[in-house]
Amino acid sequence: MAELNIKRLLSKYVNNTASKHELDLLDGLLKENKAEDKIKKNLDKQWKLLIDKEPTHGHILSKDLMAQTLNKIRVAEKDKLVERIGWPLWSKIAAIFVGIIALAGLVYFQLTSEETLIIPDDKITLELEDGTIEIIEEDGTSPILGRNGNIIGNHIGNKLVYRSNEQSNDLVYNTLKVPYGKKFELILSDGTLIHLNSGTTLKYPVEFIPEKGKRQVFLQGEAFFKVAEDKFFPFVVNTDGIHVKVLGTEFNISSFSDNAMTYVVLVEGTVELHQNAELIGPSPLILSSGFKAQIDRELDTEIEVEKVNPFQYISWIDGELLFRKSSLENILKTFERHYNITIINHNEDLNDILFNASFKKEPIENILIYLDDVLGLDYRIKNNTVVIN
């Protein structure tokens, strides 16, 4: 873990993307016994791996390139970082770089800086307030650190759990992004439980501040909320089209950018629905349990309400897909998010056909066979793409 942290922190330092907290962590690592030896061994190892993988990189080890790289670190970067981390840490880092990075390490980081910043599309990510992006491994565990280095929560498998430390005086937001083909759980500092569906992004405070008047999050995608009750501190979910205000209840909300419809389905209790982000203007619509409210954002219509079975709309939490009066176009979009595939439909005459269907953790191949039986689809599968002719 120490070597991994050293590699990550040094990479961010070289690319000038390290936060103040990360620089403090690097300073701590440098103060450890034999920390410099660890760094040297780590860089030497990474360079050897790079040469083995791409032998042509060895030809780039010219004196001119090394001189340019070192000059960038010692001159351009020095002026910026002295103000942030002070001379003691700078002198340690400079000594390490001059001693060993001229041999290989700095060139390795320079050559791979773009690669280290590229995050695979299939990874769950957490973006911190300072713009730092962390990959959330679903089989891992780790503490969640605040901007002052204190532990504000924990990552456990496919769940993030924040704790209330009651030390914040201002709102600090994190942004969780769940890619296609994945689902994730989140427990906020107030105890609110959120299930995030595939292709969903949620921006939320790591700690709610009562003085701000409300608990507020921002959603793009689909999520099920089980909101911790607080009669004096309402919870607000902002989406493109509908803003939901609750005191404590359970509901599902869907607002995908590639679907014109935004809808809210209430499982229990009541909620207020607003079309204004400031929650002002006309009287809000009060939605009761067992009802669905939806709005067509493209047509800018009024909110429509109908009675539904709410459990049909939260079956996705358990991996089941339920469709009621759903167009084939929207069903195919759901398949893309759920299975992390691309579907190209050249037969647009089928888009508006309405379906009632349910699929319990079926592989996409079985679903396509079913649709072929019903519609006589002419389709083919290649790699991760389904083409409907």
Topology:
Layout: H1 2-14, H2 20-31, H3 35-53, H4 63-117, E1 124-127, E2 133-136, E3 141-145, E4 151-156, E5 159-162, E6 173-178, E7 184-187, E8 193-196, E9 200-205, E10 215-226, E11 235-238, E12 243-246, E13 250-255, E14 261-268, E15 270-274, E16 285-288, E17 291-296, E18 304-307, E19 320-327, H5 328-339, E20 342-345, E21 354-360, H6 364-375, E22 379-382, E23 385-388
Helix pairs in contact: 1-2, 2-4, 3-4
Mean pLDDT: 78
Which class of secondary structure composition applies to the elements? Answer: alpha+beta
> What is the 3D shape?
globular
Low-confidence stretches: 46-87, 98-116
| Separation of the first and last Cα atoms | 50 Å
The total count of strands amounts to 23
Oligomer: single chain
- What's the helix-strand series? HHHHEEEEEEEEEEEEEEEEEEEHEEHEE
Tell me the number of helical segments per DSSP (H or I, 4 or more residues long). Answer: 6
Helix content: 25-40%
Percent of residues in beta strands: 25-35%
Backbone CA Rg: 25 Å
Largest sheet: 18 strands, mixed
Could you characterize the architecture of this molecule?
Helices cover 32% and strands 32% of the residues. With 389 residues, it is an alpha+beta fold. It is globular and about 60 Å long. 26% of the residues are buried.
Summarize the model shown.
The protein is of the alpha+beta class.
What descriptors fit this protein?
23 strands, alpha+beta, 3-stranded mixed β-sheet, 389 residues, 18-stranded mixed β-sheet, single chain
